[in-house]
Amino acid sequence: DIIPQPLLDQYLSMTDPARAQTVDTEIAKHCAYSLPGVALTLGRQNWHCLKDTYETLASDVQWKVRRTLAFSIHELAVILGDQLTAADLVPIFNGFLKDLDEVRIGVLKHLYDFLKLLHADKRREYLYQLQEFVVTDNSRNWRFRYELAEQLILILELYNPNDVYDYLRHIALTLCSDKVSEVRWISFKLVVAILQKFYTNSANALGLNFINELVVRFRHCSKWVGRQAFAFICQVGMFSLFLCVP
Questions:
Q1: 1-118 CATH, one of 2.60.40.1190, 1.10.10.970, 1.25.10.10, 3.40.50.720
Q2: Where is the signal peptide (predicted)?
Q3: In angstroms, how far is CA 134 from the centroid of its own chain?
């Protein structure tokens, strides 16, 4: 009743490997690119028409096809709603997290947009996996770590202070010691955001523990780059308490 059945059948057939050989080698990529639009047109009540096609594309041997889906999975989650997202998209999202960096960057760039759509208990499961984003296939891919820091600044609002202290704090400290200055600089902003999270939620003890850790790790660092990091953290917006620490 929404679109002609032959048109839908034609679209669904785009994942046929034979068509890639005879029509267009990138036809699967074009199919993946337009899938959120097709899903929006059909509506979530007709997602069953696209589910198998989506799963086929998500396991395509071409990383460009999987990358295309990774960049749009958050948009599809909005279209489908929380129940269908949890049932059908989360398993594919988890697969993308373990894929090549070229695919992982797609979910990383919109990590906050996807996680905020999940229920709190499901969202909390990803706290254990965020650390994996620090490790990349190519250590020189510093933009990957930069993007991680940017996303973590947004993600802070999705978790309580204890979870931030137990999981996200460690990632922030690791990124603050990155070899690339751009990554370190955005990480200093992340550190300040974490402190603000603690104090705005009256988690003063966690904030003080984190401050003491920053002092030991950076202000009293034997290397000048560590002490410089402490100065930059203060410059970004650290609390005046830092200036009084002996």
A1: 1.25.10.10
A2: none
A3: 11
